[in-house]
UniProtKB/TrEMBL annotation:
<keyword id="KW-0812">Transmembrane</keyword>
<keyword id="KW-0472">Membrane</keyword>
<keyword id="KW-1133">Transmembrane helix</keyword>
<feature type="domain" description="PPM-type phosphatase">
    <location>
        <begin position="5"/>
        <end position="246"/>
    </location>
</feature>
<feature type="transmembrane region" description="Helical">
    <location>
        <begin position="295"/>
        <end position="315"/>
    </location>
</feature>
<dbReference type="InterPro" id="IPR036457">
    <property type="entry name" value="PPM-type-like_dom_sf"/>
</dbReference>
<dbReference type="Pfam" id="PF13672">
    <property type="entry name" value="PP2C_2"/>
</dbReference>
<feature type="region of interest" description="Disordered">
    <location>
        <begin position="250"/>
        <end position="281"/>
    </location>
</feature>
<dbReference type="InterPro" id="IPR001932">
    <property type="entry name" value="PPM-type_phosphatase-like_dom"/>
</dbReference>
<protein>
    <submittedName>
        <fullName>Serine/threonine protein phosphatase PrpC</fullName>
    </submittedName>
</protein>
Amino acid sequence: MSDNIFGITDTGRQRKNNEDAFIAEQSPDGRYIIACVIDGVGGYTGGEIAASIAREMILQRLVNLSGEVIPVLTGAFAEANEKIWEERHVVKEHSKMACVVTLAVVDLSSNQCYYAHLGDTRLYLFRDGSLVKISHDQSFVGFLEDSGRLSESEAMNHPKRNEIDKALGFQVNIINGDEIETGQSPFLPGDMLLLCSDGLTDVVNKATITATMTGGSSLKTIGNKLIDAANNEGGKDNITVVLVKNDKEKQQHAATKPLENAQPEKPKIITGQRRHTPTTSAIAERAPRKSYKGWAILLLVLVIGLAAVCLWQYVNYGNKQENDVSPKKDSVANVPRQRNPQEIKLQKVIDQNKGKILVLSDTAFKSPVIISQSILIGRDSLYIKAKGNITFQSDTGFKHPAFVLASHTKIVQFDSVSFQSFNVAISGHDQALQLKNVRFRDCKIPVLNTYAFPGKKYISGGFNTPAFRADSIPKTK
C-alpha cells in the first residue's frame, strides 16, 4: 500500500463477525487511487457476502478505468446491485442481504476526486484543519441531521439511527431512480479524504475525528487512532476507515525581494515652453526644424480620394442589393456539418459506456449541448440521466432528430434532460422509449415513434392510451 492511501477494518467489541469491506489501492495503470468502504447488512453471513460481492464487482468494473469517471462508478454500482439481487434469490438464508457503499476515485494528476454513494457510509474532505461531510446519509435520521432538525449528538443517539432507505440489493435494479448520489470535487495538495462506516460515526463525533486527523501524522497512525476511538466508545459495530491524501507539495508563491540599492525613480519635470523626453539629445534640440507642410497637403488629398472611392462603392452596393429581388442561398448550407466537441464526446460516451446507466453531469457537458448531427443510440438498453442542468439544443438549420434509436434497441430512458428547438427531438420505434422529467421547448415533434410491420402480413391491433403524462413538478419516484 502506498503512502498516500491507507485502509483498515475492525470487528469492534460487540460483533462476532465483520460485515464490512474496503478498497484502498491504485488502479492498474497507476493514474487513479481507488478508495471504497462497504458495510453489509442482512444477517450473520448475508451482509458479509453482499459486501464481498460489491467489492469484487467494483474492482472488476474499475480495472480499465478511463474516460468519464462518474458513469463508470454508477455502472459498477448497478452491476453489483444486480449480482446481489440474484444471490438473494438463490440462497434462502441470504434473502435480506444488502450493503451500503461509498466509493471515491482520485485523479492526482488533475487534483480531482469523483465519488458515488449509496446508504449511510460516509465521505469527508479534510482541508486546512476543517472536516467537511461530502456525502449525505440516505436514511430518515440522516435527513433530519443534514437538514439541521437534529444535532449531531441527537442523531448519534436516535433509536432509528441505523434504519437506511437505500442500499445495493434493496430492489431489482437501480436504473430507474435517483438512488445513487454522485459528485466531483477538487482535491488539492495537502487535502485528505476520509471514507468510513457508521461503526465510527455512530460513536465518535466530528470534533474528535477532526482532532485525530490534525497534526501531520501518517495515514496509518490516523486510521489506527480512529479505530481505537470507536472501540473506546464501546465498539458497537464493525469499524472501517479508508484515508487518502494528496501528498503533492502545496503551491507557495514567495514575495518578491526588493533590491537593496534600488533608488526611487525621480519624477520628470516639465518646465516653461519645452518638454524633454528621455531619448532627446542636446544636438537634436539645436537642429533646425524641418517643414512638413507639403507632406500634410499630400496626405489630405489622399484621404479625400479614398473617402470618395468608399462612397462610390457603398452607393453601387446598395443599388445592387435593391435590384436583387431573389437573394442567393447561403452556399455554406450545402456543406456537410461537422460535429462540435461536445457532440463528439456525447456520441463517444454512449458508444463506449459498458453499463446500462449513463450519467451526464453538467460539469462535463456544458448546457446547452448544440446538436448538429443526430446522436445514434445503438445499444440494447440504456438509461440516460442528467446530473444537473443538461439541455440539448438544435443547431441553426438542423432539421433532423436529435436522438435516433436503432431498430434493434429494446429500451432507452431519458431522465431529467431538456430539448430545445428541434423539428424532431427523439425518433424511436415500437414503444422502445421511456421518459422521466423530460422537457420539450419549441420542439415541433417531441417524439416520433414508428412501427415496423412484416411485409405481406395481416396486421391487427391499435394504439392504447398514451403512456406519457405531463406534470407541473418533477417526478420523484
